[in-house]
C-alpha cells in the first residue's frame, strides 16, 4: 500500500543520502530496507520474507526479537540504563561469572569490550605485556576485526587497503585439506605438516620475539575451516614449548555456533585467552570481551592494565547476555545445534557433493557449514576467483539472487555459501531453506554445464 511504499522510500532515501556503509563503494550499493524481523526471518517493506541463513553477520544466535532478550533489555533500561566501568554492577558481574563458569577452571576473569575487534586488540595487548614480546602470529585466511591490531592480524583482502599494517604481525598457513598448502592428502598429514610449518615459522621468526598466536578456532568468514583432529592440541603444545600466549578468537563461533559454549572445547584444548562478541547476546546491544586465564589475570593484580573503554561491560549489553545463558539452558540450545547439524544438515549437504556438479566440497560442524562452489570438480577451480568483485563475481550473484527470490537470505563469500542460521531455527525452516539452496545450486550447475 501507499503508506508502506512511502515509509520504504523514506528509509531508502535517508540511507542513500546519509549512511556511510562498511566495506563498500558508497555509490555502488543499494541496501535493502528492512521493516522487521522475528525468529529466523526478517522482511522488507513489500512483505517479502527471508529466512536468515547467515544470522545477520553470524551474530544473531537466538534469532530476531527473542522475547527473553528483549525483556532483559527493557528491564535493565528501566532500572539502570548505564553506569561507567569502574563501578561494580550486578548484570556485569553476573555475566562475567557465568562466562568464566562455562569457559572452565583455567579462567577467572572477563574484560568486556564493545565488539570483536577490540576484544582481539586487548587480548594481544595483554599477551604482549605478560610476555614482554611484541610479535604476533596469525593465519592467512582469517578475519579478526577492523581496528589497527585486529586488521593487521587479519589474513584476507580486507587488510590490503589498510597497509602498511602493524609490522609485528606475521602470517602462516593453517590447515585446509581441500586446498592444502602442504600437498597433504589426508587429515593426519595435513595436521602434521601444518604444525611443522607453524613450528618452522616460530623458530625462524624467533620464539624470543613472539608474544602470541591468534587463531579462529573454526575459521569463519574465510571458509568454515574446521581444524583437523590434533591440530589445535599441537598449537597448544607449541605455545607451551616456546612461551607464547594462545589466543582463541571465538568471536564468530563462541556461544553455541558449533554446539559448544566455546568451540575449542570440542577439541579438548584450553587457550590462555578467549575473545568473544556476537553470540554473547546475539548482537542486540554491542558487546565483546576477553576471557582471561587465572595466570594472565594475576599478572595485573599489582600492575595496572593499560586499557579501558567508556562502555566496558555496559549494563544494557550485559543484561541480554545473562538472559542468553538462561535461554541456552532452558531450551537446550547446545544440544539442538549438535542434533540439527548432524541429523539434518550434514546428510543433506553431503548429498549435494554427489548431486551437484558445482559443489566441490561441503564441510562444517554444528550449525556452521560451508559449501564450496567450483567450475570443475577435478581441478577444483573455484566458481569465481579469490577476492572476485563486480563482473567476476557474477556467478555467485546468480546463486544469491535465486536464494533471495525464493525467500532465503544467503551468506556468500568469494566462491562459497555458508549455512549459519539462527540456533533457534525450527527443523521445518531449516529444511525449507536447504531446499531453496539446493534449487539455487541447480542454477549454478546450468551455468557451468
Ligand atoms: N573475529 C572474528 C572471527 C570475526 O568473525 C569478527 C567479525 O566478523 C571479528 C573478529 C570482529 O568483530 P567485530 O566486527 O565485532 O569487531
From TrEMBL:
Name listed for the protein in its UniProt record: Aspartate aminotransferase family protein
Highest taxon above the source species: Bacteria
Keywords, alphabetical: Aminotransferase, Pyridoxal phosphate, Transferase
Family from the record: Belongs to the class-III pyridoxal-phosphate-dependent aminotransferase family.
Gene3D superfamilies: Aspartate Aminotransferase, domain 1 (3.90.1150.10), Type I PLP-dependent aspartate aminotransferase-like (Major domain) (3.40.640.10)
Entry GO MF terms: transaminase activity
Database matches in PANTHER family: AMINOTRANSFERASE (PTHR43094), AMINOTRANSFERASE CLASS-III (PTHR43094:SF1)
CDD domains in the cross-refs: OAT_like
Amino acid at each position: 500500500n501507499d503508506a508502506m511504499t512511502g515509509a520504504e522510500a523514506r528509509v531508502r532515501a535517508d540511507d542513500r543520502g546519509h549512511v556511510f556503509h562498511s566495506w563498500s563503494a558508497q555509490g555502488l550499493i543499494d541496501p535493502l530496507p528492512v521493516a522487521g524481523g522475528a525468529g529466523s526471518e526478517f522482511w522488507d517493506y513489500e512483505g517479502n520474507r527471508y529466512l536468515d541463513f547467515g544470522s545477520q553477520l553470524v551474530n544473531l544466535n537466538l534469532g530476531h526479537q527473542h522475547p527473553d532478550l528483549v525483556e532483559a533489555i527493557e528491564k535493565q533500561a528501566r532500572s539502570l540504563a548505564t553506569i561507567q566501568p569502574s563501578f561494580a554492577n550486578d548484570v556485569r558481574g553476573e555475566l562475567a561469572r557465568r562466562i568464566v563458569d562455562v569457559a572452565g577452571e583455567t579462567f577467572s576473569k572477563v574484560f568486556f569490550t564493545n565488539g570483536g575487534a577490540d576484544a582481539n586488540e586487548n587480548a594481544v595487548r595483554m599477551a604482549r605485556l605478560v610476555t614482554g614480546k611484541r610479535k604476533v602470529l596469525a593465519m592467512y585466511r582469517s578475519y579478526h576485526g577492523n581496528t589497527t591490531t585486529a586488521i593487521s592480524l587479519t589474513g584476507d583482502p580486507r587488510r590490503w587497503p589498510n597497509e602498511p599494517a602493524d609490522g609485528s604481525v606475521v602470517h602462516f598457513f593453517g590447515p585446509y585439506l581441500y586446498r592444502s598448502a602442504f600437498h597433504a592428502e589426508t587429515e593426519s598429514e595435513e595436521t602434521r605438516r601444518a604444525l611443522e610449518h607453524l613450528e618452522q615459522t616460530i623458530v625462524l621468526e624467533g620464539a624470543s620475539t613472539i608474544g602470541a598466536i591468534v587463531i579462529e578456532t573454526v575459521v569463519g568468514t574465510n571458509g568454515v575451516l574446521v581444524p583437523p583432529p590434533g591440530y589445535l592440541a599441537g598449537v597448544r603444545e607449541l605455545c607451551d614449548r616456546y612461551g607464547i600466549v594462545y589466543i582463541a578468537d571465538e568471536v564468530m563461533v563462541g556461544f553455541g555456533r558449533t554446539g559448544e559454549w566455546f568451540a575449542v572445547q570440542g577439541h579438548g584444548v584450553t587457550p590462555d585467552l578467549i575473545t568473544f562478541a556476537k553470540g554473547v547476546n546475539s548482537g542486540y546491544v554491542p558487546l565483546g570481551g576477553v576471557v582471561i586465564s587465572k595466570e594472565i589475570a594475576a599478572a595485573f593484580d599489582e600492575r595496572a592494565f593499560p586499557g579501558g573503554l567508556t562502555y566496558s561491560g555496559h549494563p544494557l549489553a550485559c543484561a541480554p547476555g545473562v538472559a542468553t545463558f538462561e535461554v541456552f539452558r532452558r531450551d537446550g540450545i547446545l544440544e539442538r545445534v549438535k542434533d540439527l547439524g548432524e541429523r539434518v544438515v550434514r546428510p543433506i549437504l553431503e548429498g549435494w557433493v554427489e548431486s551437484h556438479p558445482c559443489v566441490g566440497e561441503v564441510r562444517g560442524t554444528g550449525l556452521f557449514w560451508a559449501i564450496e562452489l567450483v567450475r570443475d570438480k577435478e581441478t577444483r577451480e573455484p566458481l569465481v576467483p579469490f577476492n572476485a568483485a563486480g563482473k567476476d563475481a557474477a556467478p555467485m550473484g546468480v546463486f544469491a539472487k535465486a536464494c533471495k527470490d525464493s525467500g532465503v537470505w544467503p551468506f556468500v563469500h568469494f566462491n562459497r555459501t555458508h549455512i549459519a542460521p539462527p540456533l533457534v531455527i525450527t527443523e521445518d525452516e531449516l529444511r525449507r531453506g536447504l531446499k531453496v539452496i539446493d534449487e539455487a545450486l541447480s542454477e549454478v550447475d546450468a551455468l557451468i554445464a
